[in-house]
Amino acid sequence: MSSTESAANTVPATAGAVFAAVDIGASSGRVILGRVSGSGVTLETVHRFPNGVVEVDGGLRWDFDALFAEVLTGLAAAARAAGEHGETITSIGIDTWAVDYGLVTKAGALVAQPYSYRDDRSRAAVAPVHQKLDPARLYATTGLQFLQFNTLYQLATEPDLKGLQALLIPDLIAFLLTGVRRTESTNASTTGLFDAVAGEWATEFLTALGLPKDVFPPLIEPGETIGTLLPAIAARTGLAHATTVVAVGSHDTASAVAAVPAQEENFAYVSSGTWSLVGLELKHPVLTQASREANFTNERGVDGTIRYLRNMGGLWLLSECQRTWAADGYTPELTKLLDTASALPPGGPQINPDDPYFIAPENMPDRIRAAVRHTGHLLPDDPAAITRCIMDSLATGYAKAITAAERLADRTVNTVHIVGGGSQNRLLCQLTADATRKTVVAGPVEATALGNILVQARAAGKVDGGLADLRRLVAASHGLRTFTPQQLSRL
User: Which of 217, 211, 151 is nearest to 183 (CA)?
Assistant: First the structure.
């Protein structure tokens, strides 16, 4: 396995501005301070907290009350950390996962803890929705990849939405901070109710499904101000009441792609975390029948770009295996586990990481071995072998998705950028270079927080330019690793 690391290290950002990023994923969350100057961006994580689904009345929901309490704790920690250096936080940006929402009354009360996309309730809604809206028509308007947990299918399960609004998770957090209801556009584009060309709600779909036309708040774009902190929030966190909450790429992948340190116009990216988001950045959506059949999605990015991608299985597979192994008393360091897996010979069995069979939790190692048996192969009950199977399967999936995206969008790329947690996984990065036969640039791991912070900084006038300028700042201030193809991989 071979890689090279760039000489760029984190550049201290002195005499700059300070911003807070609330960055929450499906398994954990952070509040991060970002300091921005002309020389680069530095990040300081001031609070970490767990996140996960809980079973309530037979359904899988997010413990949103606990989640929001952690956000407030994190913002208080950010205020203290900035104050210790005589700094004032300029604004706050929020990004989370997509598709899920909380229902809020006109008075602003949260009706119930939001359902998780991992709950199976929306499966039964798919067929009734498709009876009212032909899937081909849906795709031609929204350009959205079919996933059974997309927001429109979830909403179709709600018994009564009269007098209620659906606030996507980052918008719900922003509402509780400011009292202002908005729907940020990059996350709106994941609902299945957003017109990919017009950049507006597809109101005819809302009508066809019997949903209120105001079921979502008005749209807002990254860089626009949502509002200032409510007095009670300011008092509880120690932040100034005048602190603004700024819309960023609130779908975490939108923020991550904004911080991809690409120096070329055409590139492929893999935002690698719980899920893998694999694709290209385009100026216009691809709404062809071939694109629909390939199950590609057209999601909104920062500055009106299109994130043309496939939402694929990700490191959830490995983290769930680790959870099962830990329950059995086996807790190896991840680095050691990956090193052992990398020593195994190539060409081993693989699975389809996109199979819905892997969406729910519970005993992932047994599920993976069962899936391998269905392919006519055997996988030992050995953590290293299972880990290698996961890594090989993800790399093969990335290669297939990138090849398909190039064909469907009529683009050719030479470089694949892997950002997020997977960028630290040398085995995955090398296998991706081998499978794609392309150069892989790994990093930064905190791309989502960087994209969040930089959009805020640009809104505050602390940095200038378009995405290319923001990306140059990322490349200048964060170390990157380069992997080149070493062997032919079975596709």
Answer: 217
Is the per-residue pLDDT at 39 higher than 90?
Answer: no
Neighbours of 146 (CB within 10 A): 15
pTM of the model: 0.90
Q: Which domains does the chain have, with CATH numbers?
A: 9-246 (3.30.420.40)
Beta bridge partners of 18: 35, 89
The CA distance from 463 to 466, in Å, is 10
Burial 97-111 (b: 16+ CB within 10 A, else e): bbbbbbbbeeeeebe
In sequence order, what are the residues at sequence separation of 6 or more whose Cβ sits closer than 8 angstroms to the Cβ of residue 52? 26, 27, 63
How far from 462 is each of 35, 262, 472, CA to CA, in Å?
10, 21, 15
Contact 181, 171 (CB under 8 A): yes
pLDDT at 332: 87
pLDDT for position 489: 42
Half-sphere exposure of 83 (CA within 13 A, CB side): 10
Task: Reply yes or no on whether the pLDDT at 428 is more than 60.
Answer: yes
Annotated catalytic, 252? yes
In contact, 20 and 93? CB cutoff 8 Å: yes
Q: Residue 31 pLDDT > 70, yes or no? A: yes
Spot the catalytic one: 95, 171, 252, 392. Answer: 252
Residue 477 has pLDDT above 90, yes or no: no
d(C-alpha 16, C-alpha 109), whole Å:
38
Omega prior to 12 cis, within 30 of 0:
no
Q: Could you give the angle at which helices 169-178 and 64-84 cross, rounded to 10 degrees? A: 60
**Can you give the pLDDT at residue 26?**
86
Tokens, residue 287: 């709404």
Q: What percent of the chain is predicted at pLDDT more than 90?
A: 89
Pairing of strands 59-62, 3-5: unpaired
Q: Is 475 left (phi over 0), alpha (psi -120 to 50) or beta?
A: alpha
* pLDDT of 3 over the 70 cut: no
Q: Please, which residues have CB within 8 angstroms of residue 10's CB and are 6 or more apart in sequence?
A: 40, 42, 477, 478, 479
DSSP 8-state code for residue 481: E
Give the other-Cβ count within 10 Å of 482's Cβ.
Answer: 17
